[in-house]
Amino acid sequence: MVDLERIKAETVAYFRALDENATLRHHFHHADEEGGLWYIEAVPNRGELIVIKQAELTSAGQLHRYSWEHLQDEHGFLTDQAIDPEKDPLEVIPAQAFQRVWNR
């Protein structure tokens, strides 16, 4: 049987370490087909950009935030997939723009 608590603890530890030890952070914005806006904070790790924080502002004005402190809920989850700004439909934004939404 899979030990889900152990897997969750390892996942939290992984994302927390990336967040707490980051020396370089990248911030992106993306609009989805339903009118939602996505805000992403990512850090480089082993040649990839790993999302450590993501916020979704829905078209209805609801804000859903995900990070190592809150990995998932009934609305969504922190992605476990690396992003590629050259291939993914992401727009670079200033850190302040991300923080304005994240701290809302």
Features of the shown structure:
104 residues, five-stranded antiparallel β-sheet, 25% helix
List the helices and strands and how they pair.
Layout: H1 4-21, E1 26-31, E2 37-45, E3 48-57, E4 63-66, E5 72-73, E6 76-77, E7 91-92, H2 95-102
Antiparallel strand pairs: 1-2, 1-7, 2-3, 3-4, 5-6
Description:
The protein is of the alpha+beta class and 104 residues long. The chain contains 2 helices and 7 strands; from the N terminus they run H-E-E-E-E-E-E-E-H. The protein has helices at residues 4-21, 95-102; strands spanning 26-31, 37-45, 48-57, 63-66, 72-73, 76-77, 91-92. It has a 5-stranded antiparallel sheet with strand order 4-3-2-1-7. It has a two-stranded antiparallel sheet with strand order 5-6. The mean pLDDT is 94.
What is the count of helical runs? 2
Biggest sheet: strands, sense, closure?
A: 5 strands, antiparallel
Mean pLDDT metric: 94
Stretches where pLDDT is under 50 for at least 5 consecutive residues are none
How much is the radius of gyration in Å? 14 Å
Kindly report how far apart the N and C termini lie: 40 Å
The general outline is globular
Structural class: alpha+beta
**Within the largest sheet, what's the order of strands?**
4-3-2-1-7
Overall number of strands = 7
The helix content, as a percent range, equals 25-40%
Strand content: 25-35%
